[in-house]
Specification:
The protein has 4 helices and 17 strands. The protein has 225 residues and is mostly beta strands.
Amino acid sequence: MPFVIAPQAQVVIPVEDERYSFFPVNRVFGIGANYPLADGTVPTPFFFMKSPDTIAPVNRNETLKVPYPAHTKDLRHEVEVVVALGKGGKNLSEDEALDAIWGYAVGLDLTAADAVHANGNRDMMGAKNFERSSPVSCIRPHWRSSLPAPSEIWLYVNNKKIQSGSTDKLTMSILEQIMALSQRYELQPGDILFTGTPDGVSPLKTGDIVECGVNGVGQLRIEIN
């Protein structure tokens, strides 16, 4: 098949402990406001999408350097469980949603918070889509993870714990999210989903070291520069 320009390389995420195995990324979905706030308030979750080229894989024992985006003065961290789909479908049942999961990863949904309400509007493009805004760990196959059973999720900035929670507090569970998305889209193998972050999101600055993880899935480390 001839192309008028060279196509971009396929975005992939390494599979944990598999030197030559990679998960090809198709679409990247995210969900916001999917954990209760510290005061007990339960916001209404909402879906959004990110560009696949924001994905930045981080291998175990490595530190990814993430440039502070020029378009924001309020960069924030959001640690999340990332779900990788090996099967797709439309209007999936709970059993079908579970069967569609190939594996899990730890993700950081870095957000330019001052763009979220720019000009009185929710500018999700400016907030979510920029270089290396989606660091992810290697993907752990589902048969080697305890998810979707409850798992602890955590994040440290400069060795200080900032975020802590459990996936059993998700407003929409992992399976409920997959089912809801399948009512809007015909999901495809290679789709991934950032499933939401616990309360405690805070600003980052140049030089900060962020370490985060999900028990039974993995962890990752980045440096803002």
